[in-house]
Structure formats: structure tokens, C-alpha cells
Specification:
680 residues; alpha/beta; TIM Barrel; Rossmann fold; Immunoglobulin-like; 3 domains; 17 helices; 28 strands; 30% helix; 20% strand
């Protein structure tokens, strides 16, 4: 399909400003508050707000009866004050009247329990009445507001896949059968793909196939994997239906929906597929305060979002000014952290920084979620930091349309993650997301900016490609990675990769299946470790590393052994190998190493890839570049409590303070500096 992503001359919120603002829910407040809201928005430098995302019950209080008067007044007021609008279709929260008429539109769990009305996103995406009602309200909004001067962007639904992606009702069963018939053509092809000869599961017709509901023991893994694909595709069908209505009735305004690419927040959506369907990639990101370095996860999510956008500019549509409300413990952000988080997203490609939400709610489930205007009001640290951040975002307007410059790539595939997460794998402790986190952290600590890539994508632009977890690897992916190495690339692959095909069938021959040729080895057997067990690895010069969770019996078939198991089940055997193939090199890590233990492997691979180490940069001082027709820009973000010095390759002007910088840039503790580098 054509690439609809926005070009640099067609972005939001205007040709001259970055986006700054947040979700605005005026319907929660008396109309007398609205004038105060827009006055404060102007004081804070707000340029864009998201409106109407959860307003279906107010916009259509009864079937076919519409009330747009309040929304007319809101949009007019915002336009009069120079604030543009990301206008939502409210289809993530159908009204009570809809469920009263169609109670079977509430989704059913795998266990057969039907959810009740009273939350959000309780939707069976296969239900024809839901699809029809969503189309009608979308058509009404498009006809009424498609030409409104405040309109900058259409916002369809909200966070697809959160909190419900799959429904297991009878309507979904019928839809699943139709989806399978389109995908496979014949029931015989389904039997072959799913391996139904196992446990006498063979089907004689599509009518015999149901969703993978609760079974006495483990169900068919290929069926479960296809159902996840079906659920994702069904949500995407509904998005495309609304998008096409908006394109037809309100041409000119881009259409998006807010993603949640952080791997800790949404695991039910294949964003590679979704990124091709939106006009502008947008993302919601919330810190998971679990004791880890949250800024590393933030950087990873931003890099992944940019990659889903194909490297093009994208937009951070939601994050929190301070604490959230849905974790077991919700600490406030420290002074300066809000600005640092926001500008970290901008450094990695976002065309602004948006929040949930503008004014903190007094009622409802999210009343303790932080907002730009907190319960404490404008005489508060949060508000003062919001105003200061608005000025900083305004000062960075000239970076619009520039692109973040990557150093290396990481292969990631949501469908492989889905497959590896199914039951009865060799060890439940070997988690694909954890491996991605660890490898990313090791690259981050080497001050390398990461692009993410689908395993079948063109990788030729990257000197180093890391594969942290690719349990499901198609034959095409295997050929792609081999060609990348043969043509001079450096590849690093982690354990338990290349094992099965797209149907979760084990590749013929020894492990690691689709990757054994590029890695130059076979694996005779896996030997997962029990909780608390560890292994020692012995390497060059007698150096030692520690691994856990997983070991393998590796047999080199052309690869050289670089690190050896010093103890454990595979003692004396290869643990980390290196294979020269064509003009490139492929590394394999057969145990679980944390980010720190991965360092010498990543360093050696960087040497193979001729990537110069950045030993001149302190740990947790983030340096990222954006460049384009406007020039080259260096972002330096200091996540430490000590001032830091960042070497400059050439002199420039610091945009947030206006001073000249040469030789090096001083970045105060917890601060951000952005330098427009002088032309070479």
C-alpha cells in the first residue's frame, strides 16, 4: 500500500511550531472553566490539544441523536486562541445505550466470562453493530469538523489493544473462520500449518474451528499464534474503516491512532503492520517505576516508535507530567525530570511533547494521575515546570522535519515475541522482552543510537545489527540475515533464536534452524538452568563473565569459540562464538548475559564493525543527533546528579540558552542542552 506518513512539509501542529499540550477534556468541567483553560494554555505555550477521545455518550446521547454544540464552542474557543486540535473519534468507549441494545458486543474472555460495562475499551471488535455505530459517529464528526480551522489531526479510537485485544465469543469464532479461509484458502492448509495430526486435532471443515478457548491442558500453539494475529488484524480493520471515512469526508487532515510501543505496556499489537496504516505515527509512553533506569526504557520506546515510522518524524501524543495512578506505587517525577523525559523523546525523533492530561480530573479512575494543571493549581512545581518546558519546546521549533541519526540496528518482531510467550517452552525464565531490554541497555551504555528493524527488512545501512530474541524466524529472515553478514555486516544473535517458522513449527535439522548457516554452528540440546543457578564463562586473557537462566550444547561448524563455559551443564563447550562469513562476521551468545556482562561481546562486535567507542562520554549522559535540511543538532541529556562535559565535534549555538559552545558542552546535573552545530 502507499506510504501515507507525513512529509516534513505536512506535519502538526503548524509549519512553524513543535507540538506542545495534552489531552483536553472540557466536558469534565463547567463551561466557566474553559476561558481559564485557554488563558493558561497560552501562558504555557500550548500549541495542540487532543479533544473528544472519550466523549461518545455526550456527542450521541441516544442512538442517532447528536449534540455537537459544546464541542463547537470548544473548538471555536481554541481556534480563537491559536491552539490547534487533535480531534478524537470516541470509539474506544461506546455509551451505555449501545451496550443495552447490544450486550453481546461486550468481549468474552478465553475462560468464557463476558466483561461488563463500566470501564473503557470493552469492545468485541468483530461485532457488526459496534462497527456500524463507530462508522456513524465518525461520519458525523468528519462532516461537521473536517473543515474547521482548528483541526490539525484526526485521532481514531485510543490505544488499540489496551486493555482488551482479543474476544472469544461466538461472533469472533465465525469471524476467525472467515479470516482463516482468506489466509489459508482450504482447511487442509490449516491442518498442515497447525500440525493438527498431533493429539487428533484434525479438522474436516472450517465450521469445526473455534477460537483457542480454555482447554484442560495446553492448546495448539499454532492456533493460539494465529488467533493473536487475527485479533490484531481485526482491530486494524476497524481502524482502517474509520480512517477511510475520514480520508473521504475530511481530506487534508492526517489520521492517526496512539500507539504504545514500550514493550512493557502493550504486547498485543504488531506495530510494524500498524505503522503502514497511519498518516503520522504517534505514541503514548509512561515510565514503569520498577527500580530500573527508566530513562533507558524511555529511549528504547522512542527509538522503536521512530523505527515504526520508518525513520520519519513522529509525535509523542501522551506521557505524564509527574506520577501515574495505575502502578502499585506511583512516585512523582523529580524536579527537572519531566523536561528531561520530554526532550529525550524529541531528541529521538518526536515533533513535540504531549501529555495526559491538561487539567487533573476530580472524579473517575484517573483522578490521581498527574496533569499539566494539577490539583495544586498554578502555584505548584509541576505548573512552573510545564511553563518552562513550553518555552523550551518553543525554542526548538527549527528542528522540525529533521531526523534522528542512528548508529546501529536491533531486530525485533512482535509475532516472534507472541510465539515465544506461549506455554511449554524450555524455560519460562527466558523472556524475549527481557533480552531486548538487556541488549538495548548495553548498546545505550556504549552511547549508540538504535534503529529497530523487522527481521526481513533491508539492514545494509547498519554496520552492526543485534538480534536479542528471534525464536520465530522465517526462512526469508534467515536468508536476509545471512546476506547482511556476507555483504560485510556484523551480526550479534542471542540464544534460542531461529528455532521455528511462522507456524511455530521447528525448522528441519539441528538448531538454530533458520540461523545455523549464518552463525556457523549447531546446537545439540538446550539445558535451561534452575532458579538461582549461574554459570561462569572464560574468555580472552582469562576474563570471566557470569550467565544464568539458559545454557546450550553448541557445536561449531565453522565458527570459532571466543568464550567457553567454565562450569555448568555445558562446561568446556563454546558459550560465545564468532563466525566469519563472506565479508562480515556473526556472533552468537548461547547463555543469558545481563547488560553489563554483554559489554565485552558488544565491544568486540563494535570493533568488527569499525564502530569507534565513545569512552569520552559519561554513563547516563545521553547524546543524540538530529539532522536535515535545517542543519545538524546535538541533544545532550544528563540523567545523573553531577555536571557533565560532552565533547563537541564542532562549535555551535545552544538553543535553550542562546550561548555559543566550542570544544565541549557543559551539561548541568539533570539538565538538557541542544546545540545547533555550525556548518562544516
Amino acid at each position: 500500500m502507499p506510504d501515507r506518513r507525513l512529509t516534513p512539509d505536512h506535519t502538526v501542529p503548524s509549519p512553524h511550531r513543535l507540538a506542545f499540550g495534552g489531552d483536553y477534556n472540557p466536558e469534565q468541567w463547567p463551561e466557566s472553566v474553559w476561558q481559564e483553560d485557554v488563558r493558561l494554555m497560552r501562558e504555557a505555550g500550548v500549541t495542540l490539544v487532543s479533544v473528544g477521545i472519550f466523549s461518545w455518550a455526550l456527542l450521541e446521547p441516544s442512538p442517532g441523536s447528536y449534540d455537537f454544540g459544546w464541542l463547537d464552542r470548544v473548538l471555536d474557543l481554541l481556534h480563537e486562541n491559536g491552539i490547534r486540535v487533535d480531534l478524537g473519534t470516541p470509539t474506544a468507549a461506546p455509551p451505555a445505550w449501545f451496550y443495552r441494545a447490544h450486550p453481546d458486543a461486550l468481549p468474552v474472555t478465553r475462560e468464557g466470562v463476558r466483561y461488563a460495562f463500566g470501564s473503557r475499551a470493552a469492545i468485541c471488535h468483530s461485532h457488526p453493530a459496534y462497527r456500524a455505530a463507530a462508522a456513524r459517529i465518525t461520519e458525523q464528526l468528519a462532516r461537521r469538523y473536517g473543515g474547521h480551522p482548528a483541526l490539525a489531526l484526526w485521532h481514531v479510537h485510543n490505544e488499540y489493544g489496551v486493555p482488551v485485544s482479543a474476544c472469544y465469543c461466538d461472533g469472533c469464532a465465525a469471524h476467525f473462520r472467515r479470516w482463516l479461509q482468506t489466509r489459508y484458502t482450504s482447511v487442509e492448509a490449516v491442518n498442515e500449518a497447525w500440525g493438527t495430526a498431533f493429539w487428533s486435532q484434525r479438522y474436516a471443515s472450517f465450521d469445526e474451528i473455534d477460537p483457542p478457548r480454555l482447554t484442560p491442558t495446553v492448546g495448539n500453539p499454532a492456533q493460539q499464534l494465529d488467533y493473536r494475529r487475527f485479533a490484531d488484524a481485526t482491530m486494524r480493520e476497524n481502524f482502517v474503516h474509520e480512517r477511510d471515512i475520514l480520508h473521504a469526508l475530511a481530506p487534508g487532515a492526517p489520521v492517526t491512532t496512539n500507539f504504545m510501543t514500550a514493550l512493557s505496556q502493550c504486547d498485543s499489537v504488531d506495530y510494524w503492520a500498524w505503522g503502514r496504516e497511519v498518516d503520522l505515527v504517534t505514541n503514548d509512553h509512561y515510565l514503569i517505576t520498577d527500580g530500573r533506569r527508566t530513562h533507558v526504557n524511555l529511549a528504547m520506546a522512542a527509538d522503536l516508535t521512530r523505527s515504526v515510522a520508518g525513520g520519519a518524524p513522529w509525535l509523542l501524543l501522551e506521557h505524564s507530567p509527574s506520577g501515574v495512578n495505575w502502578q502499585p506505587r506511583n512516585p512523582a517525577k523529580r524536579p527537572g525530570e519531566m523536561a528531561r523525559n520530554s526532550l529525550a523523546h524529541v531528541a529521538r525523533g518526536s515533533e513535540g511533547a504531549m501529555f495526559f492530561q491538561w487539567r487533573q480530573s476530580r472524579r473517575g479512575a484517573e483522578k490521581f494521575h498527574s496533569s499539566m494543571v494539577p490539583h495544586a493549581g498554578t502555584d505548584s512545581r509541576v505548573w512552573r515546570e510545564v511553563v518552562a518546558l513550553g518555552a523550551d519546546v518553543g525554542a526548538l521549533a527549527e528542528i522540525r522535519g529533521t531526523r534522528t541519526v542512528p548508529d546501529v540496528a536491533m531486530v525485533w518482531d512482535w509475532q516472534s515475541w507472541w510465539a515465544q510467550s506461549l506455554e511449554w517452552r524450555p524455560s519460562q525464565d527466558l523472556d524475549a522482552r527481557e533480552r531486548a531490554d538487556a541488549f538495548y541497555a548495553s548498546l545505550y551504555d556504549r552511547h549508540l543510537t538504535v534503529d529497530f528493524a523487522h527481521p526481513e527488512a533491508d539492514l545494509s545501512a547498519y554496520p552492526l545489527v543485534v538480534v536479542p530474541a528471534l525464536y520465530l524466524a522465517t526462512e526469508a529472515a534467515g536468508r536476509n540475515l545471512r546476506a547482511y553478514v556476507e555483504n560485510g555486516g556484523t551480526l550479534v544473535v542471542s540464544c534460542f533464536s531461529g528455532i521455528v517458522d511462522e507456524h511455530d513449527a521447528v525448522h528441519p535439522g539441528p538448531y538454530p534452524g533458520a540461523l545455523r548457516d549464518v552463525l556457523g554452528l549447531t546446537v545439540e540440546e538446550w539445558s535451561p538452568l534452575l532458579p538461582g543457578e549461574t554459570v561462569r564463562l572464560s574468555g580472552p586473557g582469562g576474563a570471566e563473565l557470569g550467565g544464568d537462566v539458559w545454557t546450550e550444547f553448541v557445536v561449531p561448524r565453522g565458527a570459532e569459540t571466543v568464550w567457553t563455559y567454565a562450569d555448568g551443564p555445558a562446561a568446556g563447550g563454546p558459550a560465545v562464538t564468532r563466525h566469519r562469513l563472506g565479508r562480515g562476521t556473526a556472533w552468537y551468545v548461547s547463555t543469558r548475559l545481563d547488560a553489563e556482562a554483554l559489554a565485552p561481546v558488544i565491544d568486540a562486535a563494535c570493533a568488527d564493525a569499525a564502530i569507534e567507542p565513545r569512552s569520552d562520554l559519561p554513563t547516563d549522559v545521553e547524546v543524540v543527533r538530529r539532522s536535515g535540511e535545517n542543519g545538524a543538532y546535538l541533544f545532550a541529556l544528563n540523567h545523573t546528579d553531577r555536571d557533565a562535559k560532552v565533547p563537541l565535534e564542532r562549535s555551535g549555538t545552544e538553543l535553550l540558552g542562546g550561548e555559543r559552545a566550542a570544544g565541549h558542552l557543559t551539561v548541568p546535573a539533570g539538565a538538557v542542552r541542544v546545540v545547533r552545530l555550525d556548518a562544516e
